[in-house]
Here is the input.
Amino acid sequence: PAFGLFIFTIARDPLRIIILIAGAFFWLVSLLLSSLIWFIAVKASDPQDERLQKGLLIFGVMFSVLLQEAFRFLYYKLLRKAIEGLVALSEDGCSPISIQQMAYVAGVGFGLMSGAFSMINLLADALGPGTVGIHGDSQLYFLTSAFMTMVLIFLHTFWGILFFHGCEHRRWWEITAVVIMHLTVSGLSFCNPMYVGSLVPSYLLMAAAAAWAYLLSGGSAQNLRRFLLCKC
Amino acid sequence: MITFMNNSDSEEEPCNERTSLMSAESPPVPSYQDGLQASEAGEAQAHRKRRAGSSRGPNNITGGETSGSGVPVRESALENEEEELTLKYGAKHVIMLFVPVTLCMIVVVATIKSVRFYTEKNGQLIYTPFSEDTPSVGQRLLNSVLNTIVMISVIIVMTVFLVLLYKYRCYKFIHGWLILSSLMLLFLFTYIYLGEVLKTYNVAMDYPTLFIVIWNFGAVGMICIHWKGPLQLQQAYLIMISALMALVFIKYLPEWSAWVILGAISIYDLMAVLCPKGPLRMLVETAQERNEPIFPALIYSSAMMWTVGLAKPDMAARGPSQQTWDAAEDGREQLRSPSHAESQMSETRSPVPTCPVTSLEELEEEERGVKLGLGDFIFYSVLVGKAAATASGDWNTTLACFVAILIGLCLTLLLLAVFKKALPALPISITFGLIFYFSTDNLVQPFMDTLASHQLYI
Here is the structure.
């Protein structure tokens, strides 16, 4: 689905593609830094201690989430500057792309990159022979990974919109809400392999974020109804 | 080098010439197009980015290498106006370059992942005489540095040779050289590639069919690249050639040498294009003086100029007002087994009829595009291919390098728009790519692996 989003909404406009790739790049850099920190921590600690390793992992995950949000903020700053530049260059004084579109594209960029990194090795292995969960792990590993990744990509998209909106209007509570949501979702994934604990709340959160973002972007229940009815 | 394509006044007959130059990266030269005469909407305003990318390939002492030189674009009179337009259409041109680079990388990665042949080590080229099979780390490092020095000096020699030839107007020689190298590339390498692919998928093909297929492929390729042909086909051929060259490099360069060479090439590119005495810069300036396009064989151009009323993908011929012409050359080098060393240059010029000629009278719509040297394509693909072949992180590393290279390309294009002269296309992208490769491979990979095994998500 994320790829479909890409094709239908982003691939037309070259500027959006650039913003997408830049968003992916920022996510990548944040991942790099957070894994650097984790790596250092692991090297500095005792490799035998299981609990410590697990603790370090959790710490690494949380830190990574915080870094991702920080980079989202940095990206927002960069895009603001870029918009000013574009406005100056354009003929009629208004930018060819609005900040909301940019927020959307940036969110998709982050999401795609994080999804790709989570899934792609899995997919490559899935092409080969083997049985899922042969050592007593869950048999639904692939399926749940796929769903989790999808929900994460969508969440990144919505968080992008919410985050930028919060920055635009200086509503700090929106930004903190996004950060907390991200932390929650990552934390929930610790419940794996008890999938009920992680997937269901994630989807609920995603639905909530989707509705919120939709409302922020100017939609309303009326629009939705009109859209659905017209099409039918 | 990345250069903007400008319209050149004369029909370029050397359009189809392939010169094998050392693949040098010619710096992209942003050229602004001359103001369009036509009032037709903003179509004519193509953002001209000149990028001369010449890539230099390692020179073979025996053969020539293909190198590209970029030709600086000449500014036309209506610079200011163009400038604005240029930046406006910047995004479009970036995408016009993204797509071929991405395609080339995809082809290379797909081949590396599926065909075993290109990851087996079957010897080294004559350009990298020192072996890397030594027991100690220091020795291995030393050998790779020595290999790099040999390779770079070969490239330098080839480029200087090419520049001299160009300076003294030995066009025939250059043309012949290019044609020979593209011949070799198109026929021999394709044959090997096809053979390996068929082996991998266990598909049988008899010799007559093989002969017909390769003959057609090669003949059409020669015509398309050196002469006229539909833009898309030209672009496709150039991409394929770049991918083949990159595959050869990936196969025959030993590990550490490959990375050191990539780093050294970007430094060399930087110097060759920006220093006043650099060979590429001299090439570009000479071409500018003579108001000629730079060897068409080594450059990928994303746009083309249309002649009046004709839908011919002609590179040259522009209306009286525009004369900027950027040529990006790209040299590809061909590494061959010691028996032949030829350099090939292939230039892809793909005219893109983006602007329809609305008024037939005198205007030629020129869609100025950006030109990128083929060597740049090759080295980008080598980076990504090596990442795909040898990284422990597999797809993560490949993806990271891919994004890094694209971002580097974006930044280079941005710089091009700012500086408006030929700039090297390799340094920024390769630097980013190398940084990301090493860091992803060593740092991110363990992190992601651990996360995935616990099925945690960040």
Observations:
- Chain A has one domain: 1-229.
